[in-house]
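Entry:
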Amino acid sequence: MSWLQEYKSSLKLIEVEELFDLIFYRPLAFIFVKIIYSTNLTPNQITTLALIIGMIGGVVISFNTYSYLIIAAILLIIYDVLDCSDGQLARLKKNGTPAGRILDGVADYFVTISVYLGIGFGFANDSNNPVFYWVLLVLAGASNIVHAIALDYYRNRFLDYATNRESLLGDDLKEFEDEYKTLRAHGGNYFQLFILWIYLKYSNLQLKASKNSSETIQKKYDSKDFYKKNKTIMHLWTYIGPTSELTFIIFTALINRLDIYLIGMITFVNIYAIILFFVQHKIDGSTKLAEIK
């Protein structure tokens, strides 16, 4: 198998990948994966390393001098490369675990929080109007959370309908439950057990909340028509993804203008997300429904 074929097999479906991942982070991550492929490094160990480097990057941002912002930007680039590497290694070696997938998501949350706190204790506190910029930071953080939830929803929805994948609230939840039981029975890693326990509690709440939804009972849309009409807007949704927004932070750190990030998130990025929501609603209304057999 050629490197190009291996690289493609290490990716998710192209339509749900973020642009900066495809053109920058994942190619670098693939080179790293090829270098360490024959070692005993596991995807979970790479995730842990990425988490440490990303959180250090958040701490470094808090020093709020141009030289430290450059160092923080470099650390966050390394974090994003490693964050891509764990999944690519797991897909190539086929040694990923349910706990590892959850740990990867948890790492993203911890790094994002550390970066936002770094901006607050650094840039906001050092500004001429700390209260104003802390308010902007909170609003930008809330926007970041909403964007991540929206992308996660539409990405999973796209994968469910376009590829006829079983809903994540279905068989995949049982996979996580089985992993949790196996780890408990064999005295597994307590941190992984805790992560799985939290995820299962959260997922069961989601399942109860959506148990009457027709979309969790059967496929609502015709898969071919859904893919045709949603592949472009699915790609557009990825521009509000975590990698894109972290890259926005990295860019504004490199030019020493974190204020541009905060204002841009609250205005332009939110306007973009709202436009996408209305366009998505229109597309949904024109998509062919699946035939009920």
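Residues 145 and 178 are 29 Å apart (CA to CA).
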